[in-house]
Request: fold
Amino acid sequence: MHKEKLRIAFISDIHGNLPALEAVFRSIASFEVDSVICLGDIVGYGARPNECVELLRQNSIPSILGNHDAAIIGSLPPSRMNTNARIAAEWTIANLNSDNRKFLQQLPMTMELQSILCVHSSPNAPDQWEYLFSPTEAATSFSAFTQSVCFFGHTHCPVLFTNPIDGRRLINVGSVGQPRDRDPRSCFGLYDTKSGSFRWIRVEYDFSEAARHIIEAGLPAYLAERLSSGS
Ligand code: ZN
Reply:
């Protein structure tokens, strides 16, 4: 019989940061979760894209497509990205093996399960890669889905919006591999489908090791430096 999924861990924006992803998996293992779902941007910025994709594949973790993943498979021109992101995308294109590229190619833009919608950027325009930061932007997004909760990533900033009319929620689960809320610790979300309770979990990891990988790969030093400040 199909087992109802009760507790789900949501991870997002891993960005080729293997030490962070491993630390998050260790933390997830300490909670009794029924499944793990990835909201995209598995690669880009960090220097361990193959290892991160393989960890998700080995653990059969369902994932959706992020804009950095899209840049690697050719559905988003790297020229539309900022300089550091573009350099990292070009490096990742050159370094990702074909099996892992194929894995990214089959990722869907959105995913729906029970009363949950998963998107990378925003529910109103998932393939436009808009940034959902403000309550005004959230109001536009609420009218674009009917599920009781929508989980997203993309901004790397954990935030929760509640629709004042019907109580539906939009929840950014934060970033595993490149947090930008001035807290360098990895972030992921834990959701209980029965009670509807949600919380963010922060996880210490060795960001100096991830920074060393970036420098050794010849990627921009800024991408290594920002990990220590979570910016
Ligand atoms: Zn991202």
